[in-house]
Amino acid sequence: MQLLDGKSCSEKIRQEIAEKVAEIKSKGDRAPHLAAVLVGNDGASQNYVAFKVKDCDEVGFNSTVIRMEETATEQQLLEKIAELNSDDKIDGFIVQLPLPSHINEDKVTLAIDPKKDVDGFCPENVGNMSLGLPTFLSATPNGIMELFRRYSIETEGKHCVILGRSNIVGTPMSILMSRNTNPGNATVTIAHSRTKDLQKLCLSADILIVAIGKTEFVTADMVKEGAVVIDVGQTRVPDSTRKNGFRNVGDVDFDNVKDKCSYITYVTGGVGPMTRASLLQNTLKAHQRK
Ligand code: NAP
Question: Which uninterrupted H or E stretch holds 284?
């Protein structure tokens, strides 16, 4: 079994980006600029945004965090998005999800200028991805593709089972894996909460990508010998032994599954850092497109 080390892969990507930023600055141009809108006080969201700012600092990007109260209205958020859309100094921005329940996430996604949608969630960018046209690829699926690429994992002709069909992970992942690209060219099955006999389906997977948000859902009896297992899940569970009072748990029962796998990711240092690296890649692309 080989652990897919998203932490060290993402460090390499950040180094590559930092070199490009140094080159941009040496020509007298301004650095790429990422903005993040954070609505409310969700602890996990605050952490994710703090990491994104740290990543920007490390590669030499400018960053701006716009904090809005939990009680901010949908209209106030849409006005902020309109401002960011027309701000020439901002190359790309994200609105950290989830949003408070009184705000419609679809409306928010649709309001973002596709040219600044570095999360790759807007219909235009998802459509371009489906057609194989230049675009901002959704950060998490693209981070996973980058892991396959950097570890030279063969995906062609393999049966790839994806658990979860969310707009931000499972669905775009299924598109990227089935396209005529390398990595890609897999035969893809996408499963969800209504899928029958998940165990049998998972056992047929050469590559199993799990994004359902259910802790340790995938157990050893669901995994084929030699499979590649990618655990996207990241659920905070209380843990009094930790300074911050919680730990992240994945969707895969890592301890019991790992020995059956050829490659596997762990919840810490796996897919998460690759997602963040993809966001930086997209922001650099947004800057270069100008
Ligand atoms: P989501 O929007 O909550 O969607 C969950 C998906 O899982 C849905 O399609 C759902 O099916 C399916 N599902 C739920 N229970 C299931 C079951 N028992 N059997 C089969 N399918 C089931 O999830 P998401 O936003 O994609 O996130 C999934 C997990 O990934 C979460 O833990 C999240 O924190 C994590 N995540 C991590 C990263 C990262 O960078 N590491 C990025 C994004 C998300 P239905 O459609 O039928 O409801």
Answer: helix 271-289
